Amino acid sequence: MRDALEKWIAEQRGIASAVVELRRITTGHSRANWYLELADGERYVVRIEQGGVFGTSGADEFEFMRAAARLGCPVARVRWIDTSGEVIGHPFFVMDFVVGAPPAREERALSSDLAEDFVRHLADLHNRDWTQELAIDGDAAGITHSQIDRWTAVYRNSSPIADPLLEEARTWLHHNALAIARPSIVHGDPGPGNFVHDGQRVLALTDWEFAHIGDPTEDWAYLISMRGSRTMPREAWLALIDRVATVTLTDRDLRYWGAFNFFKGACANLSCIRAFAGPNPAPNMAMIGTVLQQTFTSQLASLVAGDSP
């Protein structure tokens, strides 16, 4: 892989320089991140797809990161992309390496200043005018329905049989879909562990594979109930979001978008079974596609089973 990347990057840059260091820097389930340093001092991250895990596209991630950078959001600069899979055996893209604080023992532990800065940057992402950078299929009223159908397709393509809980949840989400006041860029997986920081400030939002145009409430619900749930209690997140982002979330918002996020996760996780049986037979693929998938489905069922919002 080292030789292939060295040659390919030289072609993209128009300048030859030897690879002096190449090492994997994060485990990553949908993507493997590799640190790459050249003899002339340039440092990059090579983000490699792993068998279509989570039903996401590196090409889409690349475009959202490029758009976010042009809009002034903190994100690593993306450089080049190979969608063919012919260079190193898998599609990948290359972005600049962002120097941050050394990883903490618990990556989801945040100082109050860092948590506040993260909420500020996520709100800023939601408030940027993306319309000159990205396009959406259909009208704003159909965005949420399109996302529900997208994840339904991922699950159905990954499972040989229908899952009655996911089918019922799909119907419930369509029936109870909330109107979007203002479509925005949705990160899709925001929170601790998915940004580079210096201990006090966010330097770059990372892991954009779930990014799309949608309702920003999806991100806030995801942060509170999933990625940020071990960092601080729900009420603390709600107060911080209300104070810093001036976004007030209702129980109805949190229930609907909580259900949506667990549905998205349950559908995406089923893709790991297909990957495990094919191009990516790693133990974590089997665990995500079974134990974690069932956990998400159980959480989803509990939300759907309550009174309609």
In short:
The protein is α+β, with helices and mostly antiparallel strands.
Provide an overview of this structure.
The chain has 309 residues and is α+β, with helices and mostly antiparallel strands. It has two domains: 2-96, Phosphorylase Kinase, domain 1; 112-305, Aminoglycoside phosphotransferase (APH), C-terminal lobe (Aminoglycoside 3'-phosphotransferase, Chain: A, domain 2, Alpha-Beta Complex). Helices cover 46% and strands 15% of the residues. It is built from nine helices and nine strands. The protein has helices at 2-13, 58-70, 112-127, 143-158, 164-175, 217-227, 234-244, 251-277, 283-305, and strands at residues 19-26, 31-38, 43-49, 78-82, 92-96, 184-186, 195-197, 202-205, 212-214. The strands form three sheets. Strands 1-2-3-5-4 form a five-stranded antiparallel sheet. Helix 5 packs across helix 9 (283-305).
List the helices and strands and how they pair.
Layout: H1 2-13, E1 19-26, E2 31-38, E3 43-49, H2 58-70, E4 78-82, E5 92-96, H3 112-127, H4 143-158, H5 164-175, E6 184-186, E7 195-197, E8 202-205, E9 212-214, H6 217-227, H7 234-244, H8 251-277, H9 283-305
Antiparallel strand pairs: 1-2, 2-3, 3-5, 4-5, 6-9, 7-8
Helix pairs in contact: 4-5, 4-8, 5-8, 5-9, 6-7, 6-8, 8-9
